[in-house]
Amino acid sequence: MDRKLLLVGLSAAVLLAGMALGTVLFSRASELRGAAYAEPYPVAADFELTRSDGTLFRLSEMQGRVVLLFFGYTACPDVCPTALAELKLVLEEFGHDQAEDVQVVFVTVDPARDDPTRVQEYVNHFNAGFIGLSGAEPNLVKIWNEYGIFRETVNDASAAGYQINHTARVTLIDRRGRLRVSFGFDATVDDIVHDVKLILKQD
């Protein structure tokens, strides 16, 4: 075989291999459908809040499971029930065994009305396995700030008395307690299921 042709052929093969590798690396980086955190993945801020039975919940105790964390309140007229209904559908996409690897945690942004019992009763309407949490406002303020949760009380003439405008996103924390993906309110059930399955495979 002509040496020049052989060199050209080898160069072309190397170029194609490089392009293929670049395509694989790029596709891996863009596989997640939510907003992915950059490496090195930040550690999710640990916190303690009160469960409905009076015991303390520690986020760090969830390591080994993927956590889907959402902040809301029980008197929310639309955003919170929609988000929880979607998270219920997310868990239904997993078999019983795999669903145990995923934990939904709901933290109130309305401690004046939401005691731990009320929050847990609220999330139970969607899935009895969800964890609903509340606590003292100073502790919650620290948690809201650590997770970038905007919260604003809005006076309302309705029987509810007031509403709360708040950040509505689901934060995915991986098995090692790291922030991996954030989902905006427009994320679909399929998007969240896709990313949870991907993170479970990686861990």
Please characterize this protein's 3D structure:
The chain is α+β, with helices and mostly antiparallel strands and 203 residues long. The chain folds into two domains: 1-30; 35-202, Glutaredoxin (3-Layer(aba) Sandwich), CATH 3.40.30. It has helices at 3-29, 79-92, 96-99, 116-124, 137-146, 189-202, and strands at residues 35-36, 48-50, 56-58, 66-72, 102-108, 131-133, 151-155, 162-166, 170-173, 179-183. The radius of gyration is 22 Å and the shape is globular.
The percentage helix is 25-40%
What is the CATH homology-level superfamily of the largest domain? Glutaredoxin
Number of strands: 10
The CATH topology name of the largest domain reads Glutaredoxin
Order of helices and strands: HEEEEHHEHEHEEEEH
Number of domains: 2
Question: What is the CATH class designation of the largest domain?
Answer: Alpha Beta
Query: pLDDT below 50 for ≥5 consecutive residues: which ranges?
Result: 1-29
Gap between N and C termini, in Å?
49 Å
Strand line-up of the largest beta sheet: 1-10-9-4-5-6
Counting DSSP H or I runs of 4 or more residues, the number of helices is: 6
